[in-house]
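Worked example

This section walks through a single chain of length 220. The input is the sequence exactly as stored; nothing has been trimmed or padded.
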Amino acid sequence: MLHGGPHSFGTSLEVLVIFSSLRGTSTAALVVLAACGPKISEFSVTPRRVCAGDTVRFTFKTRGTAHLVAVRHGTATADTTEYHLVAEARGKQATSQADVVTFSPRAEPSLAFDVALLGQDSLVATDTLSPATWPDALRLGEVFADSGRVLLVRHAGKVDQVRPDEDGNASWEGLPVSGAWELRAGLLPGEAPGNPAHAPPRHLYLRVGLACGSADEGRP
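Given that input, the structure is written out below as tokens.
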């Protein structure tokens, strides 16, 4: 379903649209007379990770005839929708693409964190996940260690160990995925920084259960 938004006509076109539901392939076309070649000067999509039924907001500014095409690829736990913005003028095209992932209630995506050496015997990995990509409606369930080692995890003011076994850790249940994450781990036997044959991993991985909820859940 396509909802209209503010727009202006001339040699450029600025449109704000909201897709509340897309299935298969959909196209939105907006036409403007252009004296120059096609150009996409802005194309933003927020949020980039959503729950089923959530609304995705698009803002784009183009010169030429603009087509917005959505192509959906589904799996058991998540759908990825590719949004292709095409601007056409004088037989030429300009294109831009953005992907949105829609998670099912049983989804457990993996988060990858770049690793740095901490001292001589430990690893640290940090990252801040943007709410523009991971909106507050996506809340954490259990957290699993997918790196074959014990991880000390700090997120949303809580610190706890996550062990590499089948049982997850529910310490962060109900809290948002977005925000600052820090993971620490010790080197495993045989790992030697600076030795290419026995180097520690470049990434540490967490697998997170997801639930859809309000922004007030999980807050004191």
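What to look for: The chain has no helices and 16 strands.
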